Amino acid sequence: MSATKGLEGIVATTSSVSSIIDGVLTYHGYNIDDLADNASFEEVIYLLWNHKLPNKEELKSFKQELSQASPIPDAVIEQMKSYDISKVHPMAALRTAVSNLALFDEEADEMNEEANRRKALKLQAQIPTIVTAFARIREGKEPVAPKEGLSFAAGFLYMLNGEEPDEISEKAFNKALVLHADHELNASTFTARVCVATLSDVYSGITSAIGALKGPLHGGANERVMAMLNEIGDEDKAESYIKDALANKVKIMGFGHRVYKDGDPRAKHLKEMSRQLTEVTGVSKWYEMSVKIDEIVTNEKGLLPNVDFYSASVYHSLGIDHDLFTPIFAVSRTSGWLAHILEQYENNRLIRPRAEYTGPDKQEWVPLEKRT
Ligand code: ACO
């Protein structure tokens, strides 16, 4: 019995939610390029959960259901106000608040499909409310209640900023949500599936997934990309910074991928959005520095940007606080986590792999008083 480090190349389940085949990403058979150019995030959520695109009527009622489910219990807001919010990372706050939500849902532990779908809807609708409430509370502002009639993307930016976004920001944010929605058996989705395969509840599955997304080798990379851009500070300093980092075996955040070796198909969309947003903000520094770093890392190490690299300058151009980048990833990826959780329940078997033992053998018991 020998282990494969990081489970590389191991096929751990079947799934019809999304696929990565020969470097092409699809959500239930729809190419990510088509979805990025055409779909609303609500259509994508519907697709992931129902395995079909909604017709007009279905989309209308789905949007209404999402909108009606978005307010969160006052107690969840009060809990966020109860700790020293200035010292808490928003991903930690989100993880705790999602777990807290379960305590206010009478059917949190109901295991039938209808109840699980109702919980999925609530979680998808309420996670944006939590993220934006947290962002406002720490600035000493009151949370903004969800507003009916706005798209998912506009609704998020409205709750964050207290005003409706312009059309370009709404479109860019919608596209970012579409691009981050699902990604086959990534680390956080696998975590969610392992959790609910014990027949634990949907809230536990999403809470576990948020914990996995938080790490810098996964969703936490986007915030660190922006920290790196800030640290470099100027395009002229990029070359020496990156060469030094690579020489010291430091990982460059936003580059490399376990599955894509010829490039992440989402990155080109985010790169183009990052460029377009420079025309809106009039600030091209972050985009140009990102392109330069991209060239250097590709030339020096043959590594290509992943979804996190250009999303950093996109979110920065949208005026979003840097530590909210990963929570925004969670807002989008919740749709994929939930699709996988529902799929896991449909055809469940406990996920319990083995470990190759590397510890000592045949140890003799030593009584406590004789131990040194
Ligand atoms: N910067 C520098 N070197 C890198 C990077 C990087 N970003 N990524 C991989 N490498 C190097 C490794 O050091 C290793 O080199 P070596 O063979 O000389 O030791 C080689 O490339 C293979 O890399 P692994 O770490 O084995 O690749 P793995 O598949 O385990 O990891 C991962 C993939 C975690 C994405 C990695 O590329 C990485 O740490 N990237 C930076 C963090 C990041 O951007 N994460 C977001 C990924 S996308 C997402 O989760 C949403």
TrEMBL record:
Keywords: Acyltransferase, Coiled coil, Transferase, Tricarboxylic acid cycle
Cited InterPro entries: 2-MeCitrate/Citrate_synth_II, Citrate_synth-like_lrg_a-sub, Citrate_synth-like_sm_a-sub, Citrate_synthase, Citrate_synthase_AS, Citrate_synthase_bac-typ, Citrate_synthase_sf
GO molecular function: citrate synthase activity
Domain of life of the native organism: Bacteria
Active site, UniProt feature: 257, 308
Pfam families (UniProt xref): Citrate_synt
Reactions performed catalytically: oxaloacetate + acetyl-CoA + H2O = citrate + CoA + H(+)
Signal peptide (UniProt feature, chain positions): none
GO biological process: carbohydrate metabolic process; tricarboxylic acid cycle
Protein's pathway: Carbohydrate metabolism; tricarboxylic acid cycle; isocitrate from oxaloacetate: step 1/2
One GO term describing the cellular component: cytosol
Coiled coil region boundaries: 94-124
Family stated for the protein in its record: Belongs to the citrate synthase family.
The protein's name: Citrate synthase
Native organism: Alkalicoccus urumqiensis
